[in-house]
Amino acid sequence: MASTAGPQLKYADSSTDELMRDLNRLPLFMTELDQTDGEGGSNLMLEALQALAYEGSPVEIARNFKSQGNERFQVKSFKDAVEFYTKAIMTGLGKPEVKPTQGEGADSTNSSRIEELPDNMTAEQEKEIAEAYFDSKATSGTKINLNTTDTSEAAAKDAKELADIVTSCYLNRAACNLELQNYRRVINDCAEVLKRQPANAKAYYRTAKACLAIDKISEAQECIERGLKLEPKSSYFKELGIKVFQRENYLLKLEQQQNKREIMSKHVVHI
Question: Where are the TPR repeats (predicted)?
Answer without folding.
Answer: 201-234
